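Example 3.2
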Amino acid sequence: MRIACEGKEIELVNTMKNGITEAIGITKEIGDRLLDCSCLLRVEHSEEVFNALLEGINNLSDLVDFIKELKRGMGTLKGYSQVEPFLSSWDGSLKVFEDMLPAFESNDWITLSDLIQYELHPFLVKGERSLSELNEIL
């Protein structure tokens, strides 16, 4: 399946493909770094670990913003309904963030580590896979 494009849509699709390609690598990097942070949080609570965690969360927030913009851009394409399922896998990101916030605020580092390891990381792996599949059909 490929989306039929013409004129300005071709330029938009090419821009999206470039962004998706970059996001795929970034998604893996963010997931791996946050997973490292979750392991470290179980044994140490140093400034270095918290700075790395904050950086990972900020990067993740930027990635989610990119996905939102990608959805908006896709919405302008004629064949959007064909690709929407590939982006819907990212809809759970807000729920994971909402679950992480109370753990962070209450200094519950084990729960936060569990959420990163068992919910966020698999979510990012699935999101990375869906971006790869989307990139193939554009």
